Structure formats: structure tokens, C-alpha cells
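ENTRY TYPE: protein
CONTENTS: sequence, C-alpha cells:
***
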Amino acid sequence: MTGQPQDLAALQRRLVEFAAARDWQPFHTPKNLASALSVEAAELLEIFQWLTPEQASAVMADPESAHRVRDEVADVLAYLLQFCAVLEVDVLAALAAKIDRNELRFPRPGGGPADPGAGPAGSPAGGPAGGPAGGPAVA
């Protein structure tokens, strides 16, 4: 265990080594990892299921809820990184390419030059899927 900040590649290697040390590779198929990722994302969603928008915005103010959110975010990222390792997807390159496509697909209002640090309509990277908040699903 380490309390030191690590880069994404180092964390991904730790996850691969963790699974290998326990002989879990036969179970870490793309389908199984995608299923596990979906389950963990649903567990994150469950925290917010019946909250009002105001309550959802304040969820990190409650230490117990904040702990649950951090744990589920970690689970989602862990399964995503393991999925990417199995399929040899460079997660950062895939994300950068997706943002590039979305900047073309969703131009800034007024047609001005795109700000590389902003996503559609000036929102920060347009959210996880790259689409505008509350906007269309981005494929």
C-alpha cells in the first residue's frame, strides 16, 4: 500500500499485478469486466437515486456519503482500467480522441475557435461522456 500519488499507468499496473497474484486472469474477460464496471457504476448511481438536485450537489458534505462516493468512484475506475488493460486500450489516448471528436461535433456557440480546455458550449470537457450537461447522449 502507498499513500503517494501515482500516475494512471502505475495504478493500472498495480491492478493487473493484484489480479495476477490471485490467479484472477481467467475471470477478467472483457465481458466480465464490462459487466462489473456496469454494476459498480450502478452502485454509484444508487447513492444519488432519490436525492433532489440540491441534496445530490451536497453529497460530499456528509462524511459517510462522501466515503461511499469515493469508494464507488474507485471501483468504477478500477474496473475500467482493468478492462482497458485486457483489451490494450490506452484510456487517456481514447479520452483525448473522444474529446477531439466532440469538439468538432458540438462546436462552440458563435462558431469561435474552440478552447482546448473547454468542452461543448464552454462546459469543462462536457462531462464524462463528452456531451453537454443534460444534452444528447454522445456515442
About this structure: The chain has five helices and no strands.
